[in-house]
Amino acid sequence: MKDDYKVVIGLEVHVELNTESKAFCSCSTNFGAKPNMNTCPICLALPGTLPSLNKKVIEHAIKSGLALNCTINPFFTMDRKNYFYPDNPKNYQITQKNYPICEKGYIDIEDYKGNIKTINIERIHVEEDAGKLIHIQDKTLVDFNRAGVPLIEIVTYPDLCSAEEAVLFVKTLKAILTTCGVSDCRMEEGSLRVDGNISIKNKRLNIQGNRVELKNINSFKSLEKALNYEIDRQIQLMNMDKDIKLETRRWDNDKGITIAMRDKEEGEDYRYFPEGDLTAYKIEESYIYKISQSIPELPRSKYKRFISDYELSSYEADILSQDINISNFFEKAALRSGEPKEAANLILGEVFRILKERQKEIQSFNITGYDLGELILILKEGVISSSTAKVLMEKMFLTGKSAKDIIEEENLSQNNDKDAIGEIVQKVFNSYPKAVEEYNYGKRKVITFLIGMVMKESKGRANPELVKDIILKKLNEV
Ligand SMILES: [Zn+2]
Fold first, then answer.
1. Interval between CA 17 and ligand 1 midpoint (Å)
2. Locate the Asn/Gln amidotransferase domain: which residues (predicted)?
């Protein structure tokens, strides 16, 4: 039944730009400040105030446009979108309707099977965010700290055909924008929010359903669940010959359903008109060129390079290329140690485990990629065992000290001293004469037990290869 339907999804992604000040005033954009601390007469819309456009907003918007393969328009204007809502002090939002800053871009998404699909971007425009309503028992309070924080809205063409593709698109977009440094794209803090337009078509009967808009989805999990729920709901309605209403719905995460909010507004409901307090802006070619030079290597090219230059698997390359802080950390470790595979293994394993346990991000990690590279070198030299390396990494993270310093301070180096190991082996033989006897009667398996006991006695520091050689040698002497 589901095969009869074609799913059509277009997304509108709102991304808060990480400028230091707001779009039209000099208030701080700092997240987590006390309510209404980051406000002034301009962003509170007091009479007689005038907005002035923050140049950094335009720089970030152009940078995003270039990274998403858009055309940067030679001039742009700002418009007013009128609507009344308590979190919107001006009763209109400054946005861009007729002359957005960027148009006609695309990005490629690649699924885990290696299938690549191009998703076209209709436009990117700049606008300001609204404040936030806080509901406490029967009261509603309003915090205007977010009012006037700059956003870009990225509007795709309806090129996406499933919830999985939509999630992949947003993940790819996030990787590009964070790499460019225009936003932190933290969905949990609301700096990346997604609206989706979903409709279905019955291919067999050639019936097109109405478009439903899903509002303000703020996690990848919710995005996938909400879209899948909505697709199923629309298919069920069409199967029952019922109308799919043209409306705006929201995702209720607790109930796991979408709920109707209101009939869909059309453009005319907002009475758009040009923002008379701001001029039309011209963008010089030379300015665009200058910005293009500041764009770092993007995740997709990094992904390919990690596979070809470092021989990583596509899985490893994918994870290590998504976040610029992680990819920098990896490359420093790989270059310092000359062991990219080992560096990738340790980062995907131990480093991620430590970060997750302490709920930290790699930027706040106490050790650098260079430090990890040094640790890998020490490991390769056989100075320490791989189990000691793990303990060491934990200590490096806690103290911020280098591997070398900790090894020296705590006398952690791996024991390669044949005489010292020989002494431990003898001690184990003395403690377990029966095991030695069994070996001599042909029970070869006891050797594993003896190695284990020697390793335990040496507190894991004896070189296991040497231990095995010495045990065999001594057993054959007996
Ligand atoms: Zn302000």
1. 16
2. 328-475
**104, pLDDT greater than 70:** yes
Q: How far is CA 33 from CA 27, 30, 39, 116, 189, in A?
A: 12, 6, 11, 42, 13
Q: How far is the CA of 147 from the centre of ligand 1 (A)?
A: 8
Q: Is the pLDDT of residue 256 over 70?
A: yes
Measured distance CA(414)–CA(464) in Å, rounded: 10
pLDDT at residue 403 above 90?
no
Q: How far is the CA of 27 from the centre of ligand 1 (A)?
A: 4
* Least trusted range by pLDDT, from 109-113, 145-149, 259-263, 339-343: 259-263
Rounded distance between C-alpha atoms, residue 143 and residue 278, angstroms: 26
- Ligand 1 center from residue 197 Cα (angstroms): 33
* Alpha-carbon span 402 to 20, nearest angstrom: 34
Could you read off the pLDDT of 19-76 as tens digits, one per residue?
A: 999 999 999 998 888 999 999 999 999 999 999 999 999 999 999 999 999 999 999 9
* Predicted pLDDT at 276: 92
Q: What's the rounded Cα separation, in Å, for the pair 95 and 156?
A: 17
How far is the centre of ligand 1, averaged over its atoms, from the C-alpha of 48 (Å)? 14
pLDDT number for residue 1: 60
Unique residue bearing structure tokens 């490359």: 331
pLDDT value of residue 463? 82
Q: What is the mean pLDDT of the chain?
A: 90
Distance, in Å, from the CA atom of 324 to the CA atom of 299, rounded to the nearest integer, reads: 8
Q: State the distance from the centre of ligand 1 to the C-alpha of 98, rounded, in angstroms.
A: 26
Q: How far is CA 267 from CA 45, 81, 87, 273, in A?
A: 24, 9, 21, 11
Residue 358, CA distances (Å) to 143, 354, 367, 371, 394 in order: 31, 6, 14, 19, 11
CA–centroid distance, 24 to ligand 1, in Å, is 7
Give distance in angstroms: CA of 176 to centre of ligand 1.
29
- Domains present along the chain, CATH in parentheses: 2-287 (no CATH), 299-410 (no CATH), 418-477 (1.10.10.410)
- d(CA 210, CA 212) in angstroms, rounded, equals 7
What's the rounded Cα separation, in Å, for the pair 157 and 11?
A: 8
Q: Would you say the C-alpha torsion 350, 397, 321, 162 has a positive or negative sign?
A: positive
DSSP 8-class letter at 383 = S
Q: Ligand 1: distance of its center to the CA of 145 in Å? A: 8
- CA of 132 from ligand 1 middle (Å) equals 15
Measured in Å, residue 37 CA sits from the centre of ligand 1 at: 10
Rg (CA), the chain: 30
Burial 112-146 (b: 16+ CB within 10 A, else e): eeeeeeebebbbbbbbbbbbeeeeeeeeeebbbbb
* Alpha carbon of 152 to ligand 1 centroid (Å): 19
